[in-house]
Write a structure and sequence with these properties.
Blueprint: H1 16-27, H2 32-36, E1 42-45, E2 62-74, E3 81-87, E4 92-97, H3 101-107, E5 113-118, E6 120-123, E7 126-130, E8 133-136, H4 137-142, E9 148-151, H5 156-160, H6 165-178, H7 189-194, H8 200-208, H9 213-245, H10 256-265, H11 272-285, E10 292-297, H12 303-316, E11 320-324, H13 328-341, E12 349-352, H14 358-370, E13 375-378, E14 392-398, H15 405-412, E15 420-425, H16 431-437, E16 442-446, E17 457-462, H17 466-478, E18 482-486, H18 494-511, E19 517-520, H19 526-537, E20 543-546, E21 559-564, H20 572-579, E22 590-595, H21 601-612, H22 616-627, H23 653-669, H24 679-698
Parallel strand pairs: 4-7, 10-15, 10-16, 11-13, 11-14, 12-13, 14-15, 17-22, 18-20, 18-21, 19-20, 21-22
Antiparallel strand pairs: 1-9, 2-3, 2-5, 3-4, 5-8, 6-7
Helix pairs in contact: 8-9, 9-23, 10-12, 11-12, 21-22
Bound molecules: adenosine-5'-diphosphate (ADP) and magnesium ion.
Adenosine-5'-diphosphate binds next to helix 12.
Organism: Paludibacter jiangxiensis
GO molecular function: 3'-5' DNA helicase activity; ATP binding; ATP hydrolysis activity; DNA binding
InterPro entries: ATP-dep_DNA_helicase_RecG, DEAD/DEAH_box_helicase_dom, Helicase_ATP-bd, Helicase_C-like, NA-bd_OB-fold, P-loop_NTPase, RecG/Mfd, RecG_dom3_C
Length: about 700
């Protein structure tokens, strides 16, 4: 049987070492298989012919049928160009070439019928097509009818070496025609039959050379299914093996600490969402399986409190618990909140960060090992080897996306037996992403805010309204509140951004001479940053001018206004995170988005979404649809188990759910994939894992 993955492209007729090298360098295409899986990014309907009379400059790719009436070369040397008049009887347009003049003149003749294909544009009041594709009528007839023509992404370098979309297509055509046998199937035959999928061979042929729109759609469905299915199979197999191989600590009973806290020290009623989530977690930690759970909930939805109650459950069952947070500020904040909650109870809580003094550190280590310390809160410092627990039963990780999977894994090994893991994130993750990136975790969602919170009111203003925004700021400060003003600081233009920030700071200082102002940005030393934060948190300063360093975790309930300067430069999820810094107290809070007047369509949509809703999930979905999964924080390709070539997490949620169900059913019947028909699955999983590893090494 042919092994497409081990045949290198340079051995394909018509490719040769030079083109092979270019395909490899520019597109990482090395083998027959790589090329077969390099799919078109769009298709153009070539069954329709336009007439020149109906052309407009903004028409997309079109094709015309007609004759060239004359050629004209203009200029000499590198700036030479060639024009041709082309007519179809309804009018005349110009075709233009800036390169390959000799080739074109050799190839095409006047007064011969051609099909011309390209994108019209307006130049000097006339419509022209630059570098059109041209085919003889007889050629196109001979090839059978191409209805939908695929277009392949190529790089500038490839194009200038005549390796454009059409050339790539031709190489793929050669490859497919030269295959002596069908491409071997990569799914069990019974699945292909049961779900009426196209066999792999047909799917690959039709994705490159669709015989009809319906066949193209079937090909896409089959290939998408396969991608999503293998990701889900891999994730769910991990879950099943973990459940089989690793026993979990059983938190069998609800004891004194949990009950005492709930009855005596909790001054408010839990929300229904909190109760539901605690029930889910209790079922998990009581089952004898090891819990791996993602807890999602918007800022302020009360995740920390849920985590605290689960920690009490761990303590009641004779275990220690820890919380790991991504920054020192956050860890300290957790420490303070939790210590305050537990102040009436006889429990020991410790804080361990990079700046914990040696003496305190040694003491913490001792108390941890003796079991005297019940709860340890900290940063990455918790991962150090000399941090040894006596009996760690539960690990809570806050703000997941800042921690890598490897770091998570390191905490796993702090015990002989893996502790329960609760990952908390305030970045709402669309369901499809959660199912893929965290597909090996169970998911709990707190979808309700504690009562009495007033939804944050969000407004979008143009920058010329800054003075009225300032008047509003003054009014709020006079009523005793505090204000954030945030500037973008994005790495590419760091210098310029920094200048904007300092100018902004001076402008604010001038506008509010009677108030005290803090400034925080990434260039401050940690101690300076902490000092500035502390001053704002304690109410010493009324205004905080900052970059996005304040995005995560800072909790100043008295701050009621968030002004975001140059809001057009932030992504939706980031805007939502920033907005979450206010609305944490009882006061009505506001978020003001300032932008220039001229805005693109996408930006307008972002501003509209922000002013319309406070729902983090809705915003995350919108963000995913607008930007695609690759750009969302923490969800770069490396967050996916395997590369996606065709499936699209923003739009294929139904297919994803379907693929997950199929994988789940299959594993229920054959958890170890031992059935002869399932050998192909193990083989494919191994292959994909290897590719995924290689891929990461390259990037
Ligand atoms: P998160 O970690 O999800 O951002 P927190 O647990 O920090 O949220 O809770 C935000 C604030 O709301 C805290 O001051 C917390 O004490 C309070 N809180 C949590 N749950 C409730 C509740 N059910 N009712 C009232 N206040 C609550
Ligand atoms: Mg929190």
């Amino acid at each position: 049987m042919i092994n497409l993955a081990s045949n290198e492209l340079k051995y394909l007729t018509g490719v040769g070492p030079k083109r092979a090298e270019m395909l490899n360098k520019e597109l990482s295409i090395l083998t027959f298989e790589d090329l077969l899986y390099y799919f078109p990014y769009k298709y153009i309907d070539r069954s329709k012919f336009y007439t020149i009379r109906e052309l407009q400059s903004d028409t997309a790719y079109i094709q015309l049928k007609g004759k060239i009436t004359r050629f004209e070369t203009i200029g000499t040397g590198p700036s030479q160009r060639l024009t041709a008049s082309f007519t179809d009887g309804t009018g005349t347009i110009e075709l233009v070439w800036f390169k390959g003049v000799r080739f074109v003149l050799d190839q095409y003749k006047v007064n011969t019928e051609y099909i011309v294909f390209g994108k019209p544009s307006l130049f000097n009041g006339h419509i022209n097509i630059a570098h059109p594709e041209i085919e003889k009528i007889s050629d196109s007839a001979g090839k059978g009818k191409i209805v939908l023509q695929g277009f392949y992404n190529t790089t500038e370098k490839m194009k200038s070496n005549f390796l454009n979309s059409k050339a790539v297509q031709k190489i793929i055509f050669n490859l497919i025609s030269s295959l002596q046998e069908r491409v071997p199937e990569t799914l069990p035959g019974y699945l292909v039959k049961q779900f009426k999928l196209l066999p792999l061979h047909e799917a690959l042929v039709n994705i490159h050379f669709p015989s009809s729109a319906a066949q193209l759609s079937k090909a896409r469905q089959r290939l998408k299914f396969e991608e999503l299915f293998y990701i889900q199979l891999s994730l769910l197999r991990t879950v099943k093996l973990r459940n089989q191989q690793t026993a979990g600590f059983r938190f069998a009973h609800v004891g004194d600490h949990f009950n005492q806290f709930y009855k005596q020290f909790l001054s408010f009623e839990l929300t229904n969402a909190q109760k539901k989530v605690i029930r889910e977690i209790r079922a998990d930690v009581g089952s004898g399986k090891q819990m791996n759970r993602l807890l999602q909930g918007d800022v302020g939805s009360g995740k920390t409190l849920v985590a605290l109650m689960v920690m009490l459950l761990a303590i009641d069952n004779g275990f220690q618990a820890c919380i790991m947070a991504p920054t020192e500020i956050l860890a300290t904040q957790h420490y303070e909140t939790i210590s305050a909650f537990l102040s009436g109870m006889n429990l020991n809580v410790g804080l361990l960060t990079g700046s914990t003094k040696k003496k305190d550190r040694v003491q913490l280590h001792e108390q941890l090992q003796s079991g005297e310390l019940h709860i340890l809160i900290g940063t990455h410092a918790l991962l150090e080897d000399n941090v040894q627990f006596s009996n760690l039963g539960l690990v809570v990780i806050d703000e997941q996306h800042r921690f890598g999977v490897a770091q998570r894994a390191k905490l796993w090994t702090k015990n002989d037996q893996a502790p329960h893991i609760l990952v908390m994130t305030a970045t709402p993750i669309p369901r499809t992403l959660a199912m893929t990136i965290y597909g090996d975790l169970e998911v709990s969602v707190i979808d309700e805010l504690p009562p009495g919170r007033k939804p944050i009111q969000t407004y979008h203003y143009y920058e010329n309204k800054r003075n009225s925004v300032y008047r509003f700021i003054r009014k709020e400060i006079e009523e005793g509140r505090q204000i954030y003003i945030v500037y973008p600081l994005i790495e590419e233009s760091e210098k310029l951004d920094f200048q904007n920030l300092t100018e902004g700071f001076n402008q604010v200082k001038e506008a509010f001479p009677e108030y005290r102002i803090s400034m925080v940005h990434g260039k401050l030393k940690p101690a300076e940053k902490d000092e500035a934060m502390r001053k704002f948190a304690s109410g010493d300063t009324q205004i905080m001018v900052a970059t996005t360093v304040i995005e995560v975790g800072v909790n100043v309930p008295n701050a009621s206004v968030m002004i975001i300067e140059s809001a057009q430069r932030f992504g939706l999820s980031q805007l939502h995170q920033l907005r979450g810094r206010v609305g944490r107290g009882a006061d009505q809070s506001y978020c003001v988005l300032l932008t220039p007047f001229e805005l693109g369509k996408d930006t307008k949509k972002r501003m509209e979404t922000m002013t319309r809703t406070n729902d983090g999930f809705e915003i995350a979905e919108a963000d995913l649809k607008m930007r695609g999964p690759g750009d969302i924080e923490g969800t770069q390709q490396s967050g996916l188990p395997f590369n996606l070539r065709i499936a699209d997490l923003a739009h294929d949620s139904q297919m994803l759910q379907f693929a997950r169900n199929v994988a789940n059913d299959l594993l229920d019947h054959d958890p170890l994939l031992q059935h002869p028909e399932h050998l192909i699955l193990t083989k494919q999983l191994q292959k994909k894992q290897k590719e995924a590893v290689d891929w990461k090494k390259i990037s």
